[in-house]
């Protein structure tokens, strides 16, 4: 009887301990600014990214995989925004949708990798076969030439083989090159020596001009962020969207520093090696005009269908130009699997905006 009571007490202690540990893990996740659902989705998306990169390393075309990852990344970014805004229910729903969209991803990546490995093995066989075949053609040609010379020497009426020698060599060379072409194609590919990411900002016409500048209340504007990956493998990027007035800090390429402004929204982007991605940026501003037309107080920034809180942001009238300036900043960050997080890539683009027509026109 005493043994039974002790067992029950021990069992209760174990159950209580497990409950406390589970609750503490949830609390830690929430203290770190991430809900458990978002944390799970983040882990899943990194796992899928690693699988896509492994398939690419094997020689697979992963454009279909990066397309799925980019869709899941948008949902995850929206979940993070909803959570930071206090809407935990929407955040959990969006995070679950992001994770669900990656349901068959790992098997698809494994299939692409398997096919790529099979093609690579076949190419290796062709490479070896072409080298062996080339030497076989040269050896056979030499043997045929020797045989012809012997037969010609035994004939009563000899043929002058010298005049056919050049033609024989040319034919042998052509056949050898044809047989060696798979090997030549493989060795003629120059290895990549420069590794970088190209970040660009394009106007509404997908060109490096016609950028939005004169901004009006609640009007919609369009620009495009261009990403070109020359890093040697697929990359997981994050573009932090920030806003500042003319007196607040902007990123610096010279000092490799980011803006001191907080990130309003993160745009996730997955780009395969030697491929490009264009991300549309549709935005507009809401505001209030204060202090006898000396200050614009911002209320919100509408970006790609999401409302970003700008309360507390303002821009004072520049006394020399009579303009309210705003700076919409896009900083490039890249996922580092070694540290398990994002690092600033020392690249940014920005839109310098004339906010004067916001207040003056309304």
Q: Return the domain count.
A: 3
CATH superfamily of the largest domain: Immunoglobulins
- Biggest β-sheet, characterized? 6 strands, antiparallel
Q: What is the structural class?
A: alpha+beta
C-alpha termini separation: 83 Å
Task: Give start-end ranges of low-pLDDT stretches.
Answer: 9-32
Beta-strand residue percentage: 25-35%
**What would the average pLDDT be, to the nearest integer?**
83
Q: Portion of residues in helices?
A: 40-55%
CATH topology of the largest domain: Immunoglobulin-like
Q: Please give the number of β-strands.
A: 10
Mind telling me the CATH class of the largest domain? Mainly Beta
In one word, what is the shape? elongated
> Helical stretch count?
7
The CATH architecture of the largest domain would be Sandwich
Radius of gyration computed on alpha carbons: 32 Å
Strand and helix order: HHHHHHEEEEEEEEEEH
């Amino acid at each position: 009887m005493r043994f039974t009571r002790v067992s029950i007490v021990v069992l209760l202690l174990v159950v209580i301990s497990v409950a406390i540990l589970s609750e503490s893990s949830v609390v830690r996740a929430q203290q770190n600014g991430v809900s458990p659902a978002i944390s799970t989705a983040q882990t899943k998306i990194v796992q899928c990214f690693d699988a896509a990169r492994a398939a690419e390393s094997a020689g697979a075309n992963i454009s279909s995989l990066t397309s799925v990852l980019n869709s899941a990344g948008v949902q995850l970014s929206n979940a993070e925004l909803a959570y930071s805004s206090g809407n935990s229910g929407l955040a959990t729903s969006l995070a679950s949708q992001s994770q669900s969209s990656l349901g068959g991803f790992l098997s698809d990546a494994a299939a692409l990798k398997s096919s790529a490995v099979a093609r690579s093995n076949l190419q290796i066989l062709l490479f070896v076969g072409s080298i062996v075949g080339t030497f076989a053609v040269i050896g056979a040609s030499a043997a045929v030439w020797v045989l012809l010379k012997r037969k010609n020497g035994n004939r009563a009426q000899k043929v002058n083989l010298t005049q056919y020698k050049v033609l024989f060599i040319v034919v042998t060379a052509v056949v050898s090159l044809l047989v060696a072409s798979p090997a030549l194609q493989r060795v003629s590919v120059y290895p990549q020596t420069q590794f970088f990411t190209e970040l660009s900002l394009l106007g509404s016409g997908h060109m490096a001009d016609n950028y939005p500048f004169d901004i009006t209340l609640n009007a919609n504007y369009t620009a495009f962020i261009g990403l070109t990956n020359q890093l040697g493998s697929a990359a997981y990027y994050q573009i932090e969207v920030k806003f500042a007035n003319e007196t607040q800090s902007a990123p610096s390429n010279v000092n490799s520093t980011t803006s001191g402004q907080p990130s309003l929204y993160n745009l996730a982007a997955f780009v395969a090696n030697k491929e490009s991605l264009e991300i549309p940026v549709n935005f507009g501003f809401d505001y209030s005009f204060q202090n006898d037309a000396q200050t614009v107080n911002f209320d919100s920034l509408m970006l790609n269908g999401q409302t970003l809180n700008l309360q507390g942001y303002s821009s004072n009238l520049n006394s020399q130009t009579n303009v309210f300036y705003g700076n919409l900043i896009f900083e490039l960050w890249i996922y580092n699997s070694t540290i398990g997080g994002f690092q600033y890539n020392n690249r940014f683009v920005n839109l310098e905006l004339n906010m004067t027509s916001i207040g003056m026109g309304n």
